[in-house]
Amino acid sequence: MRIETAAIEGIVAITPPRFGDHRGYFSEVFKDAWFRENVADVTFVQDNESLSAQAGTVRGLHFQIPPFAQGKLVRCLAGRIMDVVVDIRVGSPSFGKWLSQELSPETGKQLWIPAGFAHGFVTIEPNSVISYKVTAPYSPQHDRGIAWNDPMIGIRWPFDERDMVSSDKDKTLPRLADLPGHFSFSTQQPQD
After folding, report:
1. Would you state the pLDDT for residue 191?
2. How far apart are CA 46 and CA 186, in angstroms?
3. Which reaction equation describes what this protein catalyses (predicted)?
4. CA angle 155, 93, 144 (to 5 degrees)
5. Which of 5, 43, 71, 144 is deepest in the core (most CB within 10 A)?
């Protein structure tokens, strides 16, 4: 598997190799021992999947707070997305900074997002299907988020904001400046 470290510490892009012939390809997309040794020593406890029917659908920016903070391993099974992470670790040199990766089934690229980051994406193509592994189960009491269109963060989305579709919940998320310090860069430990 090919690993690319990102400009923000902790974020890793992973591209599994594919072995193909006239029938198609085969790829091992996840191996627990390899992931623990090369990326993060975590345990995944749940797999999630979402379908977004319309291009320009934005989901996020979401995260869970301790003790249910989640690391996520994200991949796109159909369509194409711009996957986005924002560093929300207080004291981090990259606090409030964002980065994005395009994910699609054609590339097979996956994105590892440890706890301490807000995560979201926008669909570039209709009928995009996202699959992601998480290191903690979903907990409504610990579910949080920040506004995907927060001007302080300044994410450069590929669509005009007026053309993007989001949930009512995501439209009411607070801005980064109003977010309590749920994560600390200096004291954050890997979540298992």
Report:
1. 46
2. 28
3. dTDP-4-dehydro-6-deoxy-alpha-D-glucose = dTDP-4-dehydro-beta-L-rhamnose
4. 55
5. 71
